[in-house]
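tl;dr need the bound structure. longer version: we got a ligand (zinc ion) that a collaborator sent over and nobodys looked at where it sits. i said id run it. heres the input, straight from their email, havent touched it
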Amino acid sequence: MTNNNDITVYEVGPRDGLQNEKGVIELHDKVEFVNRLSNTGLRKIEAGSFVSPKWVPQMASSANVFQQITRVESVCYSALTPNLKGLEAALEANVDEIAVFAAASESFSQKNINCSIEQSIERFIPVIERALENNISVRGYVSCVVGCPYEGNISPNAVALVSQKLSDLGCYEVSLGDTIGVGTPNAIINMLNVVKDATPVEQLAIHCHDTYGQALANIYAAIEAGVTTVDSSVAGLGGCPYASGASGNVASEDVVYMLEGLGLNCGVDLGKLIDAGNFISTQLGRASQSKVAQALAQ
Ligand SMILES: [Zn+2]
């Protein structure tokens, strides 16, 4: 049962956060990371992806991660699956939810997934159908919803079109990503106002990167506009290899701190979340990028 003050924090650290890490992260550390996140009160954790290890070597161990984690009943564990092969592997690994990844920018789609927006959507049709047949819920991602590294500003209409297609195909939720973190609150609101006309706001999530330090402001704007699901990555993990200078996802700790201050309930224990973020930061050999984690460490 949710009420109007409920916000879902969708943790993407183990996938979006770690996928571009160059160094080896041991399987047992990934498992421990997901297990720690599972005990924070989070309800959604994107724990891996079933993509070709040739493209994303860091995610090659996703099947093992899903096999070895200790699942918490209240947590939905999801994985990114770009094609049928990935979906079959995800079903084998007993994922609760899958995600497909599209772009609102034609050039970004070409560079990132080697096909047009239209072709990417065509490819998702059998993936989504097969997932739904197996009672697996499907989440859609739309990247570059306000800006693209190749095309600059992106028209809200382009975002609305892709979002609606994903929703029509059966995605229960569409996560709108400011992949390179260039957005400001007005751009987010203008985009949402157009997207909301085609896809109900209850089905929209916001996914912000903090490249220009705007992520929390943008999330606040999205919440004011009615969005109730926020993607984030503990310790601010993440980046984008196709978007130079793109820094990590907004830190989950910072989002939870803001939600608490706003009197919005997300059910996440901030202390446990900080511990999970510090754990993975230690494994990566660097400090947490979460401002809240840094402040509370002093
Ligand atoms: Zn991201």
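gonna send this back to them w/ a short note. The chain has a mean pLDDT of 94.
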